[in-house]
Amino acid sequence: MVSIPMALVTFPLVIFTFLVLWIDLRTFPVFTQLRPGRKSKPFTIYKLKSMNDNRDENGKLLPDDVRLTKIGKIVRSLSLDELPQLYNVIRGEMSLIGPRPLLMEYLPLYSDKQSRRHEVRPGITGWAQVNGRNQLSWEDKFDFDVWYVDNQSFLLDLKIVFLTIKKVIFREGISSANTFTMEKFRGTK
Question: What is the predicted pLDDT for the residue at 33?
Answer without folding.
Answer: 96
